[in-house]
Design goal:
This protein is an all-beta fold. It has no helices and eight strands. Strands 1, 2, 3, 4, 5, 6, 7 and 8 form an eight-stranded antiparallel β-sheet that branches.
Length: 219
Amino acid sequence: MSFFINNNNPNRPGPIVGNPLNGLCEKALIETKKVFDACLIQTTETGLVLQTTGYSPENPTLPLTYISTEADQTNPATISDVVITRLTDRPNFANVTGTVTVPLIVTYRDANGVLGTATSSVTYPVNAILFVPQPSLHPVSIEVTAQLRSQIGTYTAENTFTITGCLQIILKVVATVLLLIPTYGYPVIPPAQVGEGNVCPGIFDTPIFPTPINDGNNN
């Protein structure tokens, strides 16, 4: 089984049924990345010129026929040249600007009909008003998540494609902080639903998680 297969144990993730206060047992202190504000930028860009490298397979036979472009999921987008300008009439807000770079995978078919891919990237300037906390010992940073998709484009020159694509950017104000949150304690991790396997009773008797403090004064 798993958390969600043939498992009725109440100590598992999933939808809450009944009173959400039932089962709360501790206030846990966790270190995590907190998102203070975020916004979504969506735009359709025409005439994007992509310079391509990293052909796979190497040395395709020209000319190439464009198929599509996607953001490279193994190489996340980044933001550079970030400037945070606080608003004088709204001191907890700021104008956030920067340049987002989105790595791309371009798919094509060469003159011999061989399907291949190449790497590229696109840059896009961002500008948004966001809530930015006042300076503290835990510094705030700006992060991005981005996606680009295109099925319209042409091979316009050697190592060059010109495309029309839909670009989506999520701009986030984040900081690594300590948060005190209510929890239901540790989950019960069920055995995997697989074929018969070797069982080692009594060998793995160490608890999966550390024992929480319970001195009677946790209220």
